[in-house]
Amino acid sequence: MNTTSGVDVENSRLFGMRCHFRTAVQTVVSLIILTSAYIFTRRAQWTEHMFQETRWIRYSTALLNSSREPCPQDAVKNSLCLSVSVRLLAGTIQSEQRFLTVGLSSVKRNKESYLLSTLNSIFSQSSEKELSQMVVVVLLADFDLGWVQESLNNIVQQFSTRLSQGQLLVIHADQEFYPPLTGLKRNFNDAPDRVTFRSKQNVDYAFLVDFSAGLSQYYIMLEDDVDCSKGFLTSIRGHINSQGSSPWVTLEFSKLGYIGKLYRSSNLPQLAQFLYLFYQEMPCDFLLSHFRTLLMQDKSIRFRPSLFQHMGTYSSFQGTHNRLKDDDFHQDPADNPPADIHTDIEVFEKHGPDEAYGQGADYFWGKGPIKAGNYFLIAFHEPVVLFHILIQTGLDGKDLLDSADVEVGEMVLKTGSGVECSGTHILGSLREGQLEQKNVTLNNPVLCLRIRVTAGQSNWVIIRNIQVWTAEKKDEKSPAV
Questions:
Q1: Is the pTM of this model over 0.90?
Q2: What is the pLDDT of residues 141-170, one digit of tens each?
Q3: Between β-strands 364-366 and 461-470, what pairing exists: parallel, antiparallel or unpaired?
């Protein structure tokens, strides 16, 4: 789907629109809360019914033999119809809940189509173990029923095994269940055709998100023109675990639009209603940002490297050229197994040592002077077999760690002054504040990785990125056939 956020406008107009939006939100929050209970009840009844029958539904049968009444055109009343507005075209809904639902919506494009390539990337970049914990939901969201039938046939032909195993579901919502898509507000001075496009897109995602609510613990939003990194589910699981008990609403695994935005499934019914109620107000990525802040997550939580890359050349809106790329995307992201981080370098404010290893946007920042013998130590919870290490220090050419050896050790010992990495072996030394070593060959698993300063410096030091790839995870994330 298109990642463009609408034409640019003056800051004052945007500020005014957001203030107006926040005022409108306050008037409907109570409605959202009241309708949530109703939606959960309807969903439970609907899901129970779905589990009682085989869910291989051919499109022509499902589409032509419906006796349901259209939902009301009023947006507030229609929000109660989300759950019954979507029909399952292909796939088997499993009774057990998975770990992750991957949701994407697709429409007919004027030029190239990327849907099948996106699905192939999702499945080929995941191991069979990961796929057993995942379900992919594709909303064929175009009103051209011929295109829907053709797309469904192509998916069934190419991914029949994934459909029969409950790893892929294909859904559709009829045009009669959509609210008005013309004569809408022209917020941000968008042209009428763009307002229609982005408003329909919001409703598409409302249907998709609501349908996906009971399928898994977590839900991640993709587009229909992305490439995935290898083993992205395993990486997502690790990042979720790294948050511990800290509250969050959205975790971000791409910096582009609404690609790679992760939610707890418990929040999906509210998110679906939110997208539907405000479908004509602004583009989807704006709404997702407001949803996060309304649920009291003020700042975005984005992880690096990005796990998803926009690969489409032409936009789904009018087929315009689209060169959007995420320069933080890595095809094979680091594993960074669970570990405790220690240092005897004085920490500046909140830039603690965990930030260097956590693959987030922050970094470790240590106060100078830095002395020879100072260390930065990663103590793994379990022995690991390393095969690739990347260490990057400094930011914009400043606060580099000038002189240090990188060592690995087979034992971690607690001492009176801290933690010691023993039985060490030197892998190499930093050069211009960096070290990357691929195809590491060690005789035994290691329990620690240490950066040991070899010469003092007066400057402060930033360690912004430590990435570790393990042989165990490499084998586990071999692509599925």
A1: no
A2: 999 999 999 999 999 999 999 999 999 999
A3: antiparallel
- Pairing, β 168-173 against β 134-140: parallel
Q: Within 13 A of 87's CA, how many CA atoms are on the CB side?
A: 21
Of residues 328, 312, 308, the one with CA closest to residue 320: 312
Q: Kindly state the tokens that stand for 244.
A: 């511990």
> Phi/psi at 280 (nearest 5 deg)?
-95, 0
